[in-house]
Amino acid sequence: MERALIAFDLGTTHLKWVVTDLSGQIILAQNQMPSGVRTDGCHSEQNPLWVYDRIVEVLKDARVQWNIQRLSFSCAMHTLLAVDSEGNPVTQSLTWMDSCAFSAAEHLRKQDVAGDLKRQTGVPLHAMSPLVKWIHLRSTLPKSARPVSLKDYLVFRLTNQWQTDYSTAAASGFLGLNGDWCPLALHYADVSARDLPELHPVTFAIPDTTGQFEVVLGGNDAATAHIHLGIAPDGGVGVLAMGTSGALRTTSAHTVDSPELFCYTMGPTRGYLVGSAFSNIGNYLSWVANLFALSVDEVLHRGIDTVRRGEPLPVAIPYLYGERSPWWREDLHAEWRGLTSLHGRDHLLGSALLSIAAMYLRGLQTLEHQGVPLEDLRIGSGLLDRPFLAQFLSDSLSRPLSLVDAQDASLMGAIDLARSEKGPTTPLIQRYYHPSHSSLYERTLERVSILAAYQKS
């Protein structure tokens, strides 16, 4: 049988996988299934046993056709589950969207230690943070319980070893920016470094329990996307991500200390992920689409056309799921403001798109204000592989955008890591988008100010 590689992307909305040959060429088109996340009130959870069973099923089917040499992972940031001393889950896997630790986050933010925790770990004190979730849950768990990520648990099930990579650990809030477990975070979490997985680079490989293939740790979805998109750790190239949530980030050679930005180490020599994370992007658009019985593409087309016509719009406050950057507030809510009888459905759609563009513009402004000038902005697949949406965002930011690769950047980055001895593939720019609608930038800039005023009200 042909030798092959397989990678899984553990996303919030979907579990994705792809099979390639040893050179990274796809031999099985990307597949996906719903991730099994259940959302109810403040809860957003996955069953880790269900995720493991799905991965085993996919792997078993793949091995019928190919001699799988290596398996690698990309994973959504900020997952947390507690396991007992035998490695059995004692909680569900909590996603970044789980906001039940709001009270713990609010309590920590009011403590004198809040600034030190953010500076030492780079992770804002917000309910998304696994550290905050753990502090919230700790008193309800067995004394032997230990905190791990969903990816850590899957690696353990496949290899019988507790190992994690720097990028996944960095987004947990337990790891210091210096690459060691943070003593201050461990103190507040009431755990020791011995309770946590061993730290390794994203390329670290472990034999599976059968000895038939290797498991490559991989990394968080931002890290694997940056690796596939060829983002060097010099802060000159930014990445716009637009999926269930969104982000505007870069890889910097140095830490960046800003209350608006996250800063996560990618491990020795790989630099730091720095940027803004937005909680209301694809999930918000899906809600709007359901509200008006439209598809997401119809929302995008109708909304963008309305904005481009320059018609007066109400103000969409998009914080349906609270918000991370730049406010880091779980208690923000969504609404439309300034509605009049002259506004119809398409005006509401346009206002939603304009507010989303404003979030990205605020993120870009913040990075550059912190001395991280982005000379190039790149996009991978996801919502932004739609040309009309990419052009809209280029106009809104008044910046050129380059589309790199039609495949999922995070997933293909995991494949790059599985073939690490050969190095990652060289990203090819598939399309450039240049700003061509200057008035759209002015409207987006105005919306940035309106959203900033809202969160202070």
Automatic annotation (TrEMBL):
Stretch forming the signal peptide: none
Keyword line: Kinase, Transferase
Protein's name in the database: Carbohydrate kinase
Annotated InterPro entries: ATPase_NBD, Carb_kinase_FGGY, FGGY_C, FGGY_Carb_Kinase, FGGY_N
Family membership: Belongs to the FGGY kinase family.
Domain Carbohydrate kinase FGGY N-terminal: 6-204
Pfam families, sorted: FGGY_C (PF02782), FGGY_N (PF00370)
Cytoplasm in keyword set: no
